[in-house]
Every structure is written in C-alpha cells, then in structure tokens.
Amino acid sequence: MELLERFARGDLEAFETLFRQFQARVYGWIVRVVRDRGAAEELTVETFWRIYRARARFDPQRGFEGWARRIATNVALDHLKTCCRDVALPEELKAERQPDPAVQWELRERINRAFLQLPAQYQLTATLALVEDRPYAEIAEALGISVTAVKLRVFRAVRLLRKNLERLGVKP
Amino acid sequence: MSESNEDKLRELLQKAMPPLGQTELQRDLWPAMLRRLDEHPVRVAWFDWALLALLGVSLGFFPEVIPVLLYHL
Q: Residue B26 burial by CB count (10 A; 0-12/13-18/19+): exposed, middle or buried?
C-alpha cells in the first residue's frame, strides 16, 4: 500500500517499481488487442505515461492493475480508431497456434478486412471475447462497462461482421 | 442471433486470427519510458502561473498581508 501511496504522491522511484512490476502484463493485454508487437510496445509506454500523468486521481485503495488495464484498454482503443483501417492486419505474431492452413490466404484476407471494417470498440470487444476467449467479466472491467453491455457489443459486432463478410463474398 | 451462429463466427475468426494467448515482452521498456518522461516534463498550467503572478503583485501592493499569510501557513 505504501508503494501505491508514494506513486500517487508523484514519487518517481515508486512509479519505476510499478512500471517494472506491471509492464509485461500491460503489454500482454495491449498486444492481444492490437496484434502488433511494435505498436504494443509503444502503446505500453503511452499507457504508463497516461498513468503517470493521472497519478493524482489514483486511489491506492482500489489497486493498481485494474486501473492500469482500463487505461491500457483506452489507449489500445484510441490506436484502433486511428490505425489499420482497410489494411491487412499487422505482422504475423507468434500465436499459440498458426492460422489453419485449410483456410486459404485469400479467405483469411477477407476475414481480416471484414474485421478491420468494424468500429474500433466492436473490434476490441470481439477480439477479446471471440478471438482471445477472455471472460466477459474481465472485458467489462477493462472497458469500465457492465457485462450486459459487453454481451450487447459482442452481439452487435457479430451481426456487423456477418454483414461485412457477406459483402466480401464469405458466407460464415 | 443464435449462440451457434456466434460459435461458427468465433471458429472462423480463430482460424484466420489465431489467439495470441500469453505473449511475452521481449525487452525492458523502462528506458523508453524515461525518454518519454524527459520529452514531456510535467508542465505547470498557465493559470497556475497567472495565480502566482497575481499573488506576487498583491503582496507587492499590500506587504502588510505577508505576516498574516505566514502566520496561517
């Protein structure tokens, strides 16, 4: 608790300790959303920069990780709003498993394109819920919304994605 | 929209965009963070400077207030 209080008072050493403790977890969250290692590193720094600037509003009683994750989610969302529209997904990341070879390259391209045409908030929710299989409660906490609102976003994302896919000639 | 429709789409998406799961950070980002902090030193807002200037001018005009202020600080 003392560390968090020191951070809230603007102690740079306390901030460094928290940074070193949480940078991997914040990065891990962001890279799942943006699926680009380089961008995720930059966005992790941006997240901690926003955390540092907002330190006076931080409540040490409420814990650091949830707060950091919420800021990271907003940073990732801002990134999705400004980047990668109508282009292929960034670099192929070393995934837990590789793309299914049975799914042809062209089909993958169409799916990616349909996905990137989704509004940023639906992209983010769908990535976490449908691709990464994260629990709705966790997504709700990161977005600062209710579980019902997450379900609604997933529902709308699925409906929009289906439309986009059909427009691109893919029948899900 | 039924749950099976959502599951089909989930399956299709995961085939095209496999889940990343745990992705490890390859390098320490603290040096980059320090550069960022140096680039953007915490700035004092203009109205804070204005308040300070106002206080300075006020004290210049009414120096007798200084001991009162010091007493209350």
A: exposed
